[in-house]
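Protein: Putative cephalosporin hydroxylase
Species: Chondromyces crocatus
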Amino acid sequence: MARDHLYHREFFEALREHPLGERGWVQHLKNIHDAADAADAAPSRFVRYLDRERRCHPSDVWSVTLTGTYRAGHHYKGIFNCKTPFDLHLYSLLLWELKPRTIIELGSFHGGSALWFADQLSLLHHGGVVHSFERFAELVSPRAEHPSLTFHRADLNDLTSLDASLFERLPHPWLVVDDAHANVCNVLRYLDGFAKEGDYYVIEDITSDFKSERYEEIGQTVDALNYLVDTSYTDNFGYNLTCAPNGWLRKMG
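Structure follows.
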């Protein structure tokens, strides 16, 4: 990673005017770089789903980010988008690293999330499309419009409502975001039939299933299909501090 720009003379001259002082900022930046280098060199970035601990830390953050405490709003361009600030940042990192040609969102709701993804792709200047699927398509806001965004009506409990020919022609790499919480394992198996090595599949909102048979079923399915958890995303802010704990999955082949 190129970091030479942090050592420019003008940069440090400006730091002398900062209350922390030049020396304090030098140490601060060194700590950041050391942590980044350690993360890059870690041998266990990709791990088995069922080898991960079933916990989030710190867990009390959700009382603020998901319940509306302190007026925590979840909107994008005036359209409801229920993604935490942590996850918006994590998705930004993944979009830059993966540079997906296709984003598949399961569960559109009002369309704010799909619109955010489409805008982010357009900023990367490499092209890409977003396809978002919703059983109750009438919920999608008419203001959720973008040239690269398409909404589809589909019932994930009925996989015949999905158009296989669409998935066959969508370019890779893919980022699949499951925010529908319906028929999770069967949908994963279905879409895996079109997946390629290096694609990402994010399963959101499974925290409440940590102690359930459903969690075990998801883990067994993920293992069988050869996905591994990418801990650089699950643990970026804390252990599983994301709305997709243990759910940032990379197709390994």
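Remarks: The radius of gyration is 20 Å.
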